[in-house]
Amino acid sequence: MQRLSNIRKMATTALCAGVLAIPLTATAQEEPGDGTTINMARATWDTGWWQAEVYASMLEELGYEVSEATTLDNPPFYQSVAFGDVDLWVNGWFPLHNTYEDSFADGAEAVGHVAKGGALQGYLIDKKTADEHDITHVEDLTDPEIQALFDADGDGLADLVACPPSWGCEEVISHHFEEFGWDEHFKPITAGYSASMADTVARYDNGDPIFFYTWTPNWTVGILPPGEDVVWLQMDETSLPEDQMDLADATEVEGLAGCAGGADPCDLGWPANDIRPVANSAFLDDNPAVRALLEVARIPIDDIFAQNAMMNEGEDSAEDLSRQASEWIDDNRDQVDEWLATAREAAEG
Question: CA of 108: how far to CAs of 39, 84, 85, 278, in Å?
């Protein structure tokens, strides 16, 4: 009888252990990141902050604890991610950021795509001035009479809203100034981009000519739609920094709305970019679920445009970004669940 009692106790213990094991196993499968903190970064341009929120939310669904994103310029981010001081961001622009590859190649890597091939860049002016003076190319603005139209401060140079120091676009614009001798014709405005563009929009509203660089997706082309308020200018000649010169034949964009003069294709002089996550390689090796998620997740360019428009209308607080990320995930739940399932399968090996 004692032996039977012992057997019953052992069976009961085993059964309880099995019941307890089921939820523990399920939790491990559902949340492979449980117990791991991700040190995430984000870029200094706020048009990329919402994407960071979306990815952070998905990573949290995998059980990871994601720290509040650290805002970094390009050079410190690429150095930090290579050293492992931060784990990742989703704001890589390639080939624009090719210049930083030497900084991170030994310790980090670009993986997956937030948006592939849809990130455009170039120079624009207001459509009214373009039409009145038959301006179709950036080089047209080097004519003294034309450049005087864009001289807001009377120093004899056309004012061009450019990029702040350390941004990838700043290097390309500086290359254009050196290569084409634009110092004699244009003055680059390199202060905070959002503030500079706010001043530019104000000048446009006052009926003054405007000249600026921008990229897509960006709120600027939402508030100043190409083809309606502004036009994309073409380049007579393509010249890029050495690390991008192999893409000099890939600067034409077909069907681009608002290309000056109605040209199709429109040669912007800048290659289209991919927006990509960049992560520490050792971190990815230790967290296959993260690698798998970064490889499969995507955000449509149109959705980024729509969110950027909301930011421009004042919905730009941390709470707004978090809410917008949650709403996007809810609206795309079936797709997101597929991505998360792929990540969980990768974690299982």
Answer: 14, 8, 11, 7
Sequence-distant (6+) residues with CB within 8 A of 49 are: 42, 43, 69, 321
Between CA 139 and CA 233 the distance in angstroms is 9
Strands of 121-126's sheet, edge to edge? Answer: 186-189, 158-161, 211-215, 121-126, 230-232
Among the residues of 31-92, which ranges form H helices?
49-61, 74-83
- The whole-angstrom distance between residue 177's C-alpha and the CA centroid of its chain comes to 25
Q: What angle do the packed helices 49-61 and 318-331 form, to 10 degrees?
A: 60
Domain with CATH 3.40.190.100 in the chain: 121-271
Instruction: Give the fold, CATH level 3, of 121-271.
Output: D-Maltodextrin-Binding Protein; domain 2 (3.40.190)
Assign 329 to helix, strand or coil.
helix
What pLDDT score does 7 carry?
34
Residue type, 29: Q
Decide: helix, strand or coil at residue 232: strand
Task: Give span(s): CATH 3.40.190.10, the chain.
Answer: 31-117+274-348
Give the C-alpha separation, 309 to 316, whole Å: 10
CATH of domain 31-117+274-348: 3.40.190.10
Give tens-digit pLDDT for 1-50: 333 334 334 334 433 444 344 444 446 689 999 999 999 999 999 999 99
- Please classify residue 86 by burial: count the beta carbons closer than 10 Å to its beta carbon, then call 0-12 exposed, 13-18 middle and 19+ buried: buried
Q: How many helices (H) and strands (E) does the chain have?
A: 14, 15
Instruction: State the Cα–Cα distance between residues 273 and 331, nearest whole angstrom.
Output: 26
Q: Is pTM beyond 0.85 here?
A: no
* Among the listed residues 276, 329, 275, 279, the one whose alpha carbon sits nearest the alpha carbon of residue 39: 279
Residues of the chain with pLDDT under 50: 1-26
